[in-house]
Amino acid sequence: MVHFxxxxxxxxxxxxxxxxxxxxxxxxxxxxxxxxxxxxKGRSRGGLFKSLARKIxxxxxxFQLFIEADEADGDVLLAPxxxxxxMILDIGERQxxxxxxxxxxxxxxxxLEVKSQGIGRxxxxxxxxxxxxxTSGAGQVAVSGxxxxxxxxxxxxxxxxxxxxxxxxxxxxxxxxxTINSSRSGLLGKLVNSxxxxxxxxxxxxxxxxxxxxxxxxxxxxxxIFGERPTDKAAKNE
Length: 238
Known about the structure:
By secondary structure, this protein is α+β, with helices and mostly antiparallel strands. Helix content is 19%, strand content 42%.
C-alpha cells in the first residue's frame, strides 16, 4: 500500500513509499529520484476522451506519469513545478475540487475528472475556467501551493471569503459563489474599488467542509516580476 510522506523545509519533497505492485499517478516532470525497483510510464489516464478533456478544458497534462513498483519495494521523490508547500488529502468520505496546477500526485485508486461550473465562476473566478478538476474514489491526493498551505474550516452558518488567487483545493460538498469584497454600492463601484485596493474577485464558501489556501498568489507574483523589468519601469515613469 502506498504511503505518502512530506519531507524537507521551505520547499518540501513528496516521498511515495511503495510496495511491490503499487502504482502512483503524478503530474508530468514531477519525478526527482527513485530507487531502481520502480519504473516510469507515461499514459493517458482514463482513456483518450477523458485525457483530452483534462488537457483542452482544464489545461492539465495529457500524458500523466505512472510510477509502478513492478520489480520490488521502493521509494520515489516527487516535487511540484513551483516552490511551495505540499498537503496530503484523504479521499473517500470527502471529495475535493482542485485549482489549476494544484495536483501533484495520487494513489491509483483515486480518479480525477473534469467538472463544469457556472459561467460567472468561470469568467471571473480564476479557479479553473469553465471546468475544474474533481476527485472520486478512495485513497490519497497530494496537492501543492505557491508558498505555505493552510487548512481552513467552513462551519454551518458562517461564510468564508477566499481570494481566488490563493485557492488550492476545497471540499466538493461546499457551495460557493463569486463576490467582490467592497463596501461600495453597485457593481461598477465595487469593480473600481477592487482595482484601487488590489483585491480581486473573492469566492464565498458556505456549508460545512475544508478549504486549503496558499500564502502566495501566482498571478500577482508574475505581474510583479514583469513590472520590475527595466523596460516596464521606464514605461511607467514616462
